[in-house]
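Schema walk-through. Below, the input block comes first and the output block second. Nothing else is stored per chain. Lengths vary across the set, and this one has 153 residues.
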Amino acid sequence: MDPTPSPDPNFLHTFERDGARGLATSRGFRRGEVVCAIPQTARRRRPTRLTVQVGDDEHVEVGGLATLNHSCDPNVRLDVERMEVVAERDIEPGEELTFFYPSTEWEMAEPFDCACGGPRCVGVVRGARDLPAEVLDRYFVNAHVRRRAERID
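--- output ---
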């Protein structure tokens, strides 16, 4: 089985650029519109590169959504309570879909240097555990991450 099938072959597709994969849409979305459901292909107790954290110690493999790249200025959010990908702003056809990884991840399996270069760039993406509350407050952050962040404040 292909580990990264497209979540919806009708309008989402993976692409490769400079040796990296990403996920783009062939149709536009309005802010607040559901882009697609978050698939759950397997459950894990620990994070991997291919999982999204959905609870304190619960991670799910998300099929083709594993090709969603990080951005400090994301255009979608992963709402793991509703298991939906939601447009954070209006999205144009052909646009790459990105989300803010610390919005779901308390601790990353494989931290990395962010390459977005935006004014709100967090530098190294390690997970929400390593970000100050004022940074997290700029983003949609899932409840399991928000609860953990409030415990350490």
